[in-house]
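for the writeup, i need someone to sanity check this before i put it in the appendix. the sequnce is what the collaborator sent (i think, or maybe the updated version? ugh). structure was predicted straight from it, no edits. if anything looks off just tell me and ill rerun, i have time this weekend
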Amino acid sequence: MVRKQFTDEVIEEMVKRMDSQSPPHHFEFQDPFWILITTIMSHRTKDAVTDAAARKLFEKYNDCRGLAEAKYEDVLQIIDKVGFKTVKASRVIDTARLILEKYDGHVPQTLESLTTIKGVGRKTANVVLADGFHIPSIAVDTHVLRISNRLGWAHSDNPDKTEMELRTLIPEKLWLGLNPMMVEFGKKICRPVGPKCTECSISEFCDFYKKNKK
């Protein structure tokens, strides 16, 4: 169970400091469909590469129908620098076809429906809900998982369990934007290897820092 010393006021202050120290990166699209496609491609791929690939797909296909009718070889060439490109080329086409045929070209607005799409887990679904529909959601990727457990916000190496702990602990008004902010914080400050604890603006609240400071 998450300890109760993290009051709403303390958490709000921590989020404010993290946000100030590492402003979030946001995908350039606001359309839920392209946020979904971009997020699918983003796994194990740098933001700049993902953004460039998504932009090229949009410029060529424009919408769900256009991508649904795309040829695999053409999409593969466009997303050539994206990690796991052969899998993702098929996946984005299949996703577009499913959205077109099952949802009349409109991305569903529920976690339950989104996670029925092949390759879309809770993390991707929550990103789409938060960024595409502004529905308060918490997406737990490797950065959010690591930071939450280091801080003491969560105590699980399971992303779904961590999400549930965070939903209980963090005030809902802070959910939107939490994932992209923590991702940047995880890249710049709370890194997997060599975390910059002495530069961290929230080290005074952090279990990891308290245990490891010299």
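The two ends are 27 Å apart (CA to CA). Residues 85-103 form the longest helix (19 residues).
thx in advance!!
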